[in-house]
Amino acid sequence: MATYGQNCARPMCIPPSYADLGKAARDIFNKGFGFGLVKLDVKTKSCSGVEFSTSGSSNTDTGKVTGTLETKYKWCEYGLTFTEKWNTDNTLGTEIAIEDQICQGLKLTFDTTFSPNTGKKSGKIKSSYKRECINLGCDVDFDFAGPAIHGSAVFGYEGWLAGYQMTFDSAKSKLTRNNFAVGYRTGDFQLHTNVNDGTEFGGSIYQKVCEDLDTSVNLAWTSGTNCTRFGIAAKYQLDPTASISVKKLQLGEEDLVHCKGGKKGGVVQDWTCKAFSLPPV
Q1: Is residue 13 one of the residues assigned to a domain?
Q2: Which stretches are transmembrane (predicted)?
Q3: pLDDT by residue (tens digit) across 84-101?
Q4: What is the pLDDT of residue 22?
Q5: 188 dihedral zone (left: phi>0; alpha: psi -120 to 50; beta)
Q6: ∠ CA(15), CA(17), CA(18), 5° rounding?
Q7: Given the DSSP bridges, would you call strands 254-263 and 134-142 parallel, antiparallel or unpaired?
């Protein structure tokens, strides 16, 4: 297997991080439904290997415009990545990451932000360890009141996945997040269930019906309430440059339908159908 110094890309058969459990199902519901939002993303790379990424968005309802600029340089020989960030809120960020140098599969990241207008500073140390059948993560957020520790672990075996996520607030000396998840994943099918803080129960199913059609079902319920959230979504790829997405959400007794179609290419042609309620049957 090639080391990081020989090749920046290091494919391994490892389970996803806890945050990415059920991601395939969520993407069918979330991607492409940014109604009232115009967004532009541009990426380029210089001859010296520096990557530039810029993103801008405009909310047609409020007229608010936001933008970000990011530069990234990878020193593959030493497994180092340097990232500088800036956004229109005038917040500056610096990130330094080192991967596969201390041991194979270990990544350490130091992330800082600074706002010149307010003088606010923040710092975070991130660590992750990825090997076959295991994906571990531990982040520490530094705060004047006391650091917050975020931890997660995902274990996988023959398609089955089990994960745990927690947050410990040292200022309050208690767990502020306590989540569990169990799932099953194959090439064209994914099942995900989760329990958040012992009060919110959820599940999702992702199915790739055929090469051009992806479907997703989502269900959630919060204890102590009679509100059950249910949704079904599908995305159909008309051709390599065009697709159509539809989703139906049920929030309590209200049904909402969203649909979107789009064509990528030199000229973007989109049509959207914003949310509307279905009459009761």
Answers
A1: no
A2: none
A3: 999 998 999 999 999 999
A4: 93
A5: alpha
A6: 115
A7: unpaired
Specify if 254 maps to a domain.
Answer: yes
Is 2 a member of any domain? no
223-231 contacts at long range (C-beta below 8 A, 24 or more positions apart): 223/198, 223/199, 224/199, 226/252, 227/251, 227/252, 228/252, 231/29
* Residues β-bridged to residue 95: 83, 111
Residues in the chain with pLDDT values less than 70: 1-12, 34-35, 251-281
Find where tokens 């269900």 sit. Answer: 219
Position 59, amino acid: N
CA 215 to CA 104: how far, in whole Å? 36
* Amino acid sitting at position 124: K
Residue range(s) defining the domain that contains residue 205? 18-277
Is 263 among the domain residues? yes
Distance CA(270)–CA(268), nearest Å, equals 6
CA-CA distance, 41 to 54, in Å (whole number)? 6
Cα–Cα–Cα angle for 28, 63, 85, rounded to 5 degrees: 70
Domain CATH for 174: 2.40.160.10
| Domains held by the chain: number | 1
